[in-house]
Write a structure and sequence with these properties.
The chain has 208 residues and is an alpha/beta fold. Helix content is 31%, strand content 24%. The N and C termini lie far apart (40 Å).
Length: 208
């Protein structure tokens, strides 16, 4: 699917600069530092803005665009990360978990490649937000990218993180306007879970 939508993915952000700028601010508000991996990075359009150096994606078409953004583009899947234990200071999944076949296995893999006390950041389109309802209503044939997505609530993501050995400690949200409203740049609200784009940061506890 993503091999045929790489250009559309980039073009959507370019034609919605207010949304893109707001989402980048929401990720940056999490304070991710050090060597970072973006899992399901797509074209690397967000990775390149928030300081992640490594972009992983199964789509070669997406990775070609990541390389143009000077990222270390690696082909792979979230359920089997081709990296050593404790290799990264942070891992980002931005609108990635909704496409994963096995989110628990994927989160366990991200935990493995994180350093002790490293940060896991998951950004979602919450299923109970106006954006989540908008994409869900279109169904499998209604949207090129999100037609096959499984949307989660913030609480469901937090529960998955805890199940996989993470401790959620921060939330950042933007897109308090709806998908049919006039877009505007927004500053992220820390600790607020309402919005069309919500990022949850969680810490990996020290391994025993």
């Amino acid at each position: 699917m993503f091999d045929t939508t790489a250009e559309d993915y980039d073009n959507w952000y370019e034609s919605h600069p207010e949304v893109f700028a707001s989402e980048v601010k929401a990720v940056k508000a999490l304070g991710l530092e050090g060597l970072g991996l973006d899992v399901g990075a797509g074209t690397g359009i967000i990775s390149s803005e928030i300081g992640a150096q490594v972009a992983l994606d199964p789509s070669l078409a997406m990775l070609r665009l990541s390389k143009q953004r000077k990222l270390d583009a690696v082909r792979g899947v979230a359920e089997n990360l081709p990296f050593a234990d404790g290799a990264f200071d942070f891992v980002l999944m931005a609108t990635t978990i909704c496409f994963l076949e096995n989110p628990v296995e994927s989160l366990l893999e991200t935990r493995r490649v994180l350093k002790d006390y490293g940060s896991m950041a998951i950004c979602i389109i919450p299923k109970n937000s106006s954006w989540g309802r908008f994409y869900s209503a279109k169904g499998k044939k209604g949207h090129k990218i999100y037609g096959n997505a499984r949307f989660y609530s913030v609480n469901e993501v937090k529960a998955l993180l805890r199940e996989c050995g993470f401790r959620p400690d921060m939330v950042s949200s933007v897109l308090r306007f709806g998908p049919r409203s006039a877009p505007r740049k927004e500053e992220p609200r820390i600790g607020e879970e309402k919005g069309g784009f919500v990022c949850i940061r969680a810490k990996k506890s020290r391994t025993s």
